[in-house]
Amino acid sequence: MAGAAKRTMALTDNLFQKTLRDLIRSLRATQSAQQEKALLRKSFADAKKEVNSQEVLTKATALEKLVYLNMLGFDISSIEFHVVEVMSYPKVSYKCLGYRAAATAFHKDTEMILLAANLLKKELTGPDVTRASLAANCIAEIATAELAQTLIGDTFSLLARGHPVLQNKSVALLYQFFLADPDCLRPSFQRFMATLESEDVAVVTTAVSVLCELARFNPRNYLPLAPPLYHLLTNKASTWLLIKLMKLFSLLVPLEPRLGKKLVSPLTSIIQTTVAKSLLFECCKLVAIAIPQSPDLMRLCVGKLEDEFLGSGDSNLKYLGLSALSNLVNSFPDVVVQWSDSIFNCLDDVDPSIRKLALRVVKGLTRRDTAVASVEEMLKRAPGADVSFRNDLILSIITMCGEKRYELVQDFAWYVRALLTLAKLPGNAHGFVIGQQLRDISVRVPAVRGPLLEGVLEMISDPKLVTGPPKSAAVLVGTVWLTGEFGHEVLRSTSEATFEDALHALLMPGMATLPAPVQALYLQAVFKIWAAARADLVGTDDGELLLSKQTDLVNRNLNTLPLSESVEVRERVWILKCAMKYSAENPGVPLHILFEQALAPVGHRAAELVSPPEGLDLNTPMCDPALLEVERDVEGGDARAQPAETDKSVEGVTAELLTKPSPRQIIESQANARESLEQHRQQNAVFYLSPQGSSSLVHEDRTLAEQMDVAEDTSAAKVGSAAAKVPTPYAPVVASVLDDVLPGNARRERLVPDNEEPAQDGLGKSIDLLSPVEVTEEAPLPDRKKHKHHKAKKEKKEKRRKGDKESRHRRRPRDEATDVMQATEVTGPV
């Protein structure tokens, strides 16, 4: 009856159990994300319950759903035992499901892999090819070092069975074993190399693929394999095998240059005869990377790339062709330049990745004699390009022509016109770099200052640029500076523009909307131009009238700038107004001489070329090192005589705060504080209330000598008066500390002033603080846990009485807190 009931229950579970197909249909039927999440959570919980069933079909169906849910983010690491259980079922479909679940749920730290090792070993050595193939697929996914050591022998046995499918999978499985446990590679490498002689091309291809992947870690270890690999290159016609050989040779040829010369002939034959684009690409890539010493082979590769790749309408082939040319252009730019038209045409492609790659090839292709043509081609395409690619073109032109101090530029007048054209392009995000290059060229090349200033005046007069985006207007930082620096020189000689035109360009209404640093540059340039104009107009016909007009022009446009929030702008406005006022009062003073000194370019290593003055010795110390040692000894020897300089750094303050003071330091610091307070009381006694608490002020007629005597005796008397009130058991502690605090004479005296009675304990007996205190059995001990051992305390008091400082300071760590507390009770609050 029990067995029948179990079978009935299992049949009911199978009848109402949802399959993976039902789960997917339910997910597609959900109307919202919340419903989908709720359904997934419920399905995952149901599947975890179903996988515990003893029915094979129920367990397998639940495991299939859990594998699917794992791909949606659910963790199934808790069902590892059930995975191994399904793997052990004899039915092939169940084994396939178990292997798939193992590949999904198992990882290198899973302990259940060891349970599956014997099962997988049995399947590998079994006669069924399908089962062995499925087991090999699973092992490749879950391979670990322990599994590799266990199954590598069975894998070679599977390789020797002669079945092509099993041989192919065995070779691929060996690669996973080598990765999981590199120690398996050396003893089994010779048996692995025997697969290169197999008659099956698929097995040889897989073996070469494994070698190609292994050679990426250390190619030099596989350099002795060059002869058999070359034999495969010349005798096998498989395209995929040849592709893998090309990849492998690209790793080996840089280590052995003679191998490259050996490969020229077979590579030429393959490039001329093959119709496979992938093989042609790998051949060209190998030639570009490893065999650059053959111009004829290089020319053949570039021609094939232009015909088969760049001329193709397929974007993927065009991108591969440009990628291969980017490798070839570094070695043979003169060969690649013959097909520059096809490369420039790629700049107009609709695919942005192709355009950017073509731009990179153009930059590598450009030389001094081809720079003008390359820049003109890029300038021609810049206005019609989208904003992103336009900025890429601008940046490429700037970096290409500006590197190595304008090595590629032969005509700076042409380059200045190109920069001014780039600065006017809408959406320009590199205005600051353009302005810096224009300023640099104006300083280095005086011959181009005339046309440069004319173009700059036209540019800064453009309201669209001045009020445009900040990145575009950043070009004004360099152009306004060179206008003020070289404007008077150009306007006096070659330019058709006048000083008034320059002032109008610099004092545009839009200037007030620019950032404060740019406004400051504008004001400085206005000052320079106005001072140069004044120098030219003074003493000429109608000079005063023209100067007055220019001064009024400057004053009208400066009325809004004093309200600026920038201190620098307001200061420059004030300086300019004061200069104009001073000029009107002193017309004979030449203000333009302030800016006549020319600025010359300074190299970044100019400071190294400056020789030091004669007699300057930078090696001899400024003071005697012996004196430094003496000062260091003084500072470290007696801190009280000469206090060290306080460290104000963060580290010094932190170290000072973390330093724990000793009990002696606490006693000394508080004694000094009480001494200072007593001196203050003696000097200002009239302002202190009487000790009896009356509100009347204390008037004491003390002579100066009495006050001095009291002050001298403070270091002993004040501490003695406080110590006299200390309970009996603590007196030795105070005495031991006071031995180091008080001066020598005070140590030998009683700490009780002569005008006071000796201190008494509760029994009426006098107490001598410097003599040992005998504690009888009837005497009450202090109520402290750390002093409950009477015998140890008595021994410690005996050592203190003998005056052995070394014994006094050798205290237990547990008594340190008690000593600090006792010292605090002795001195009391200040």
In short, what is this structure?
This protein is mostly helical and 830 residues long.
Helix-strand blueprint:
Layout: H1 2-16, H2 20-29, H3 33-50, H4 56-71, H5 80-87, H6 92-105, H7 112-125, H8 129-142, H9 145-159, H10 164-180, H11 185-193, H12 201-215, H13 226-235, H14 239-252, H15 257-273, H16 277-290, H17 295-310, H18 315-328, H19 333-336, H20 340-345, H21 352-365, H22 371-381, H23 387-406, H24 412-423, H25 431-444, H26 449-460, H27 463-466, H28 470-473, H29 476-493, H30 499-506, H31 516-537, H32 543-557, H33 567-585, H34 606-609, H35 625-637, H36 650-658, H37 663-683, H38 704-712, H39 714-723, H40 731-741, H41 744-747, H42 790-801, H43 805-809, H44 816-827
Give a verbal description of the structure.
65% of the residues lie in helices and 0% in strands. The chain is extended. With 830 residues, it is an all-alpha fold.
Keywords:
830 residues; extended; disordered C terminus; mainly alpha
- Mean of the pLDDT scores? 76
Morphology call:
extended
Low-confidence stretches: 634-658, 690-789, 805-830
SS content category: mainly alpha
**DSSP strand content:** under 5%
